[in-house]
Amino acid sequence: MKRFIKSTGKTQKSTRFYITSLPCDAKKIADAVRSHWKIENNLHWHLDVSFGEDKSRKKT
What we know:
The protein has a two-stranded antiparallel sheet. The chain has one helix at residues 26-51, and strands at residues 2-5, 10-13. The chain is an alpha+beta fold. It is built from one helix and two strands; from the N terminus they run ββα.
């Protein structure tokens, strides 16, 4: 995975490992991973919007 960090102007690369019983088909595995994170991100968005979760964090 690669991501660009605006605040530092740097690109960060990381490797993720998954254990699965799916056949060795890169597209199917990528679709399953994206599907999982889509659900996860929607839940976090709901917490942020409905409950103001991000606003409650302490600033140091």
